């Protein structure tokens, strides 16, 4: 109870010191003098910067719209510059005026102008760097926190503000969490996660561009890099908060056991995903069949595999199903796929001619491969009303579809059989209607 009373007294003292400095500055600028003159000059510079922002912004829009073929990153940079054009103009004008006044008058008569120019530059730099943070809420929190912290440091209130924030906190036994530690940890975590995201993206792009690494190993290495960097960012943020990581070992072990029982399927899918990546059974771009699903693998995730079908549907298949179920990988060892179609002709047609015509018809289809994987045709049986054949041919692009290539070969058979008087028998039935007898 006594510690809480002391903390409350320190908070009141810090607030009183900050309020005294603010009121003293306010009173000083109310009295005529150079401080008041500097404030008037800064307000005039703000108005001029706003006018320049409007005029130059329109000119930039006009020039950018007149250009075509610009890369996206250039357009994004121009957009960010245009949004902060007023702040940039203010910083340039205030900095130039500060340098001039330093030469022609006493330094104290341009102190506030130099401080405003420095603040504008710092704010602009922080705003540009904040664009690397993708999460909007986290970006705003980090940017505003850095703005406030930089402003307090530059105007000489950093120690008072830090003392005030450090005095506001809660005690948990021997451990104390203050508002300053929470804000510092949040900013540190935001910066660290942004850096981890940037490094992991850069590393991932370089790994994917390396043709010596197989696609499955690329996915595995990228996931490992992301886990390592994001894990380091998280633990460094926890350490910045002042938490003892060794004290969390028992708690994390208990939580891990509970999650192990409650999330068995999730853990099973995660482990199955690692196994799939290690044994290279499937990889991005492979064409697979799993039950009624036929398509090519779009991406490998930690929990599921994305399979895109010919009709544009994207199936998210759990990794466990690919490990425990029967999967047909059409392009596992190579990209060649053999397809079979069956047909029959009447007994009056010469089978030698039929086989020759069938091979010729299949060879004329665009996606069917030629030598050394030339189509072949064999007799497989003598049916009730037809001689049965099997026509086998190879393709190397199963992602282009299987039904359409089969349909193309059937159509080619129809055309060549019709041109050479080869008949395809079909069942014929005779129906007799008997008169009823009384």
UniProtKB/TrEMBL annotation:
GO terms for cellular component: plasma membrane. The keyword Glycosyltransferase does not apply. The chain crosses the membrane at residues 39-57, 85-104, 110-129, 141-157, 177-199, 220-239. Residues 266-332 form the Mechanosensitive ion channel MscS domain. One of its GO terms (molecular function) is mechanosensitive monoatomic ion channel activity. InterPro entries: LSM_dom_sf (IPR010920), MS_channel_C (IPR049278), MscS-like_channel (IPR052702), MscS_beta-dom_sf (IPR023408), MscS_channel_2nd (IPR006685), MscS_channel_C_sf (IPR011066), MscS_channel_TM-2 (IPR011014). It holds the Pfam family MS_channel_2nd. It is a multi-pass membrane protein. The keyword Cell membrane applies. Keywords: Cell membrane, Membrane, Transmembrane, Transmembrane helix. It is found in: Cell membrane. Signal peptide: none annotated. Residues 343-424 form the Mechanosensitive ion channel MscS C-terminal domain. Belongs to the MscS (TC 1.A.23) family. This is Mechanosensitive ion channel protein, putative.
């Amino acid at each position: 109870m006594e510690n809480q009373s002391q903390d409350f007294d320190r908070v009141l003292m810090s607030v009183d010191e900050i309020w005294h400095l603010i009121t003293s500055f306010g009173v000083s600028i109310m009295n005529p003098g150079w401080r008041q003159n500097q404030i008037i000059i800064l307000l005039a510079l703000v108005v001029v910067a706003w006018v320049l922002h409007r005029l130059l912004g329109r000119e930039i829009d006009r020039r950018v719209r007149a250009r075509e073929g610009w890369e996206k990153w250039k357009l994004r940079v121009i957009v960010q510059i245009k949004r902060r054009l007023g702040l940039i103009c203010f910083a340039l004008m205030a900095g130039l005026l500060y340098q001039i006044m330093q030469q022609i008058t006493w330094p104290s008569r341009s102190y506030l102008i130099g401080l405003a120019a420095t603040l504008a530059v710092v704010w602009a730099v922080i705003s540009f760097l904040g664009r690397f943070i993708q999460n909007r809420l986290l970006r705003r929190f980090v940017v505003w926190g850095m703005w406030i912290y930089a402003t307090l440091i530059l105007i000489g209130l950093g120690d008072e503000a830090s003392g005030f924030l450090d005095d506001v906190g809660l005690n948990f036994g021997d451990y104390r969490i203050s508002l300053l530690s929470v804000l510092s940890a949040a900013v540190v975590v935001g910066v660290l996660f942004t850096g981890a995201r940037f490094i992991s993206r850069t590393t991932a792009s370089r790994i994917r561009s390396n043709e010596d690494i197989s696609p499955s190993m690329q996915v595995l290495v990228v996931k490992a890099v992301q886990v390592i960097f994001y894990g380091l960012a998280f633990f460094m943020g926890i350490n910045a908060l002042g938490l003892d990581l060794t004290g969390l070992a028992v708690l994390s072990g208990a939580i891990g056991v509970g999650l192990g029982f409650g999330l068995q399927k999730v853990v099973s899918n995660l482990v199955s995903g690692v196994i799939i990546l290690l044994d290279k059974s499937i990889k991005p771009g492979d064409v697979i069949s799993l039950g009624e699903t036929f398509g090519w693998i779009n991406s490998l995730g930690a929990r599921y595999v994305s399979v895109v079908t010919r009709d544009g549907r994207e199936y998210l298949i759990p990794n466990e199903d690919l490990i425990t179920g029967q999967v047909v990988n059409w392009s596992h060892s190579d990209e060649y796929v053999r397809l079979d179609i069956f047909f029959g002709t009447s007994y009056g047609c010469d089978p030698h001619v039929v086989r020759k015509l069938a091979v010729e018809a299949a060879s004329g289809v665009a996606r069917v491969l030629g030598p050394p994987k030339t189509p072949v045709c064999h007799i497989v049986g003598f049916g009730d009303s037809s001689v049965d054949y099997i026509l086998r041919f190879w393709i190397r692009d199963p992602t282009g579809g299987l039904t359409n290539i089969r349909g193309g070969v059937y159509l080619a058979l129809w055309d060549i059989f019709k041109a050479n008087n080869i008949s395809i028998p079909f069942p014929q039935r005779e129906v007799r209607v008997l008169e009823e007898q009384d």
